[in-house]
Design brief:
By secondary structure, the protein is mostly helical. The protein has 2 domains: 155 residues, no CATH class; 150 residues, no CATH class. It contains 10 helices and no strands. Helix 8 runs antiparallel to helix 9. The protein starts with a helix and ends in an 8-residue tail after the last helix.
């Protein structure tokens, strides 16, 4: 048993190291752009130099956090880091990386099969090789980082993940609040999921002429992934909070809720602050719904994490071998009054 656990720990550390390495091409390119080098840049167009540097500084910092998490997953003391310091950035990273890892290859397959125009080859700002470096690196980073995190989560919270949904308890008494918040989140998730599925399948509801003119296979595939993720996240969240699918292990609906709501939150437009993309009122409503759904899910997660902490605090740890040696050396000690 110990040998099996040690092998899993070695795999986790190896994957985490690969994740750090996979971050380097993206980080290097972003750092060059922030420093003023125009490597791979054709023309910034209407984008000012300050806006370009600011956008790349933010995305550099985000990927640097991913590299830092991968480093923590590789360290022996990684399991002692406060849970929220790992879980929140990993939730955001999971949503962004999964959306990219699914939508990009599918959209490129659609383009190859239909002969549609490839926006990568016709981009006016960046040279085509830049997309290969950026998205290839992010795809590799996503695969190894998520695999390392899955092993880390199983080591740290394996008992909970293997629990049946019907056996979940409510030690902190927060289930009522969780259900209210989750119920609101479910409404926003279903609205967003249905709307993005409609857009991905070709509907032009709520789109203005400029938006329709810019639609391509990449955008439609992204909408399909977004819509499916929102509905899957809603199903998983409903199962967990309202104790449905009692036969299932917690890890199944949790993976659905974690990934689906992460995709929705990562695509909610919070990265577009200060930009003016071709948009419509309905897209603004959809982005707002995604953002609110993500924040509500985050609140539910905070309550659940509090319950885990309370439950852990009530657990009496078994005595260690060192404590037995100390007790034997010090004698029986004083006995309590009866």
């Amino acid at each position: 048993m110990c040998g099996h656990l040690e092998r899993r720990a070695r795999r986790r550390r190896l994957l985490a190291r690969f994740a750090v390495v996979a971050c380097l091409p993206y980080l290097t390119l972003k750092l060059l752009w922030v420093a003023g080098a125009d490597v791979g840049v054709k023309d910034l167009g209407t984008l000012s130099r300050a806006e370009w540097v600011a956008a790349n500084a933010v995305t550099f910092a985000m990927d640097a956090i991913a590299a830092l998490i991968a480093h923590v997953l590789n360290r022996p003391g990684g399991r002692t880091v406060r849970a929220w310091l790992i879980l929140f950035p990993m939730w955001v990273a999971t949503g962004m990386l999964v959306a990219l890892m699914v939508a990009l290859p599918v959209s490129q397959g659609v383009i190859a099969a239909t002969g549609a125009k490839n926006p990568v080859m016709t981009n006016d700002t960046l040279r085509p090789w830049v997309f290969g470096v950026v998205y290839g690196g992010l795809g590799a980073e996503g695969l190894v980082l998520l695999a390392a995190f899955a092993l880390y989560a199983d080591e740290r919270w394996g008992g909970l993940l293997r629990t049946r949904v019907r056996d979940l308890t409510d030690p902190a008494g927060t289930q009522g609040v969780q259900r209210v918040l989750a119920g609101l989140a479910l409404g926003f998730l279903v609205f967003s999921g249905v709307l993005h599925l409609a857009w991905g399948l070709g509907s032009g509801v709520g789109m203005n002429a400029e938006w329709i003119a810019h639609r391509n296979a990449v955008g439609r595939t992204g909408d399909l992934v977004h819509g499916l993720a929102a509905l899957a996240g809603a199903a998983g969240l409903h199962a967990l909070v309202f104790r449905r699918w009692g036969w299932a292990r917690v890890r199944v609906p949790l993976a659905m809720a974690w990934t689906g709501t992460g995709v929705v939150f990562g695509s909610s437009g919070w990265m577009d602050v200060g930009r003016s993309p071709a948009t419509s009122a309905l897209l603004g409503v959809a982005n707002t719904a995604d953002l609110i759904a993500g924040l509500l899910t985050l609140s539910v997660g905070c309550f659940a994490l509090t319950e885990l902490t309370v439950d852990k605090g009530r657990t009496v740890s078994p005595p260690t071998p060192d404590s037995h040696h100390l007790a034997a050396a010090s004698g029986p000690g004083p006995q309590p009054d009866r």
